[in-house]
Amino acid sequence: MKTSHCSGDPEATKSTEQNILPKPDQNGPDSRVPVELGAEDPRRLSTPRKWVIVLISSLIAHVVTAGSSIYTLAYDQFNTEWGASRELATAGLSLYTLAMGLGPLLVAPLSEFYGRRPICLWSLILYLIWLIPCALARNIETELIGRFFSGAASSAFLSVAGGTVGDLFDHSQLQTPMLVYSITAFLGPDVGPIFGGFICQYTTWRWSFYALMIWIGVLMVLFYFFSPETYAPLLLRRKSERLRREQGLDVDKKLQPQGLGRTILISCTRPFKLLVLEYMLLSLCILTAFTLGIQYLLFGGFAYVFRTVYRFELSEIGLTFIGIGVGAFIGLAMDPLWRKYRDKQLKENSGNPEPEFRLPAVAFGALCLPVSLFFFGWTARPSVHWIVPIIGSGFFGVGGLLVYSGIWTFLVEAYPVYAASALGANAFTRLAAGAAFPLFGVQMYESLGVGWASSLLGFLALAAAPFPFLLMKYGKRIRGASKFAKA
């Protein structure tokens, strides 16, 4: 029975639950005995146990993504304490996000050799360690260094956490757990300013990092005790080695991973090769890049708008991000509708699933993004109640969640052999935009004004919105001509 994995290891989707070991005293095709994971197969865990693992992984993803933005309302305090400019303080957000994008290219292949669990545990330990200089920094340089390396440490967990979710479920069951994982990761950056605003207003920015240390410490303990190894190829290798020792069977060399250096080289180069050669992948990466870039730009944009237009205090500015969060939960509640629509498409296609069946939700989400930005930009004015632009931001929450979760699932199904590389390409482009956009956000709002600055972002989102519609119509034809996608 085939097992597939959605991310976190190079081309893990080629692994199988059943592999063959040759008997030491025979030759030929009949000299092999089957080795199965059996009860050790992570997909045979009980449903409650699977969901415990999913929830722990999702909460950790939520914390480390919240860590990217939790200090974004402390920029003025950095200026007061260290004389750091807003641009230099914003670099802490950009460095953290950039490191999150670079880390998976180097770290994800390690799971092929060591499994997911050790990578996750060491990631959390290093993340906790690098939060210490962030909390105790006496100058902006130390703060920026701590931010970069804490972002890199968090990326190690994120690079394999999605794969952990994929390890536990068949494709037919994967949509809901991936949606749960997606919403927690998506909401993390928006929850960060909510907590950070209250912390910075009523204590000191340093407690933003102390809170993260406590939060991640508790979750690390839960992960240690309740989250086992789920990477099937490693579990199969271990079982094969055990059978070799106990029964004298020769281990099939196909079960052994490639050399570490070669694996890392492939992990670092193949995502960019796919970006150049696969226009289908590139178009979806552009859409997710614009989505995350705008989301991170709005950390500064919301602070500027609600401070200058509505005279909000720090804690009140943080609460304005609730609108995006509510929108994301509305997007989550729409899942049964998309599932029902997909079932209808399956029935019309004689029960044969196609990756494009995931795209209607993405297309709807892509339309919500420009609607949100135009709505927000032209209602944020003193004559309009502050709740109205926040309602407008809710459409961004709906759209962002549907875009992220739908595209991730589509890429896994469209590139089954190269899923890790496709997801790696998506992660890099998405997080590179998330690192770049905040650097010019406030300046853009100051120069263009709230309405036109938001409209410029809306036009960017609108330019990328047709991509899922085009792939719904031509995706199957494009896949048929691709050397990497499933025909």
From TrEMBL:
Residues 53-476 form the Major facilitator superfamily (MFS) profile domain. Residues 1-39 are annotated as: Disordered. The keyword Signal does not apply. It comes from the Eukaryota. The chain crosses the membrane at residues 51-73, 88-107, 119-138, 178-199, 205-227, 279-305, 317-338, 359-380, 386-411, 452-471. Keywords: Membrane, Transmembrane, Transmembrane helix. It is a multi-pass membrane protein. This is Major facilitator superfamily (MFS) profile domain-containing protein. It comes from Exophiala oligosperma.
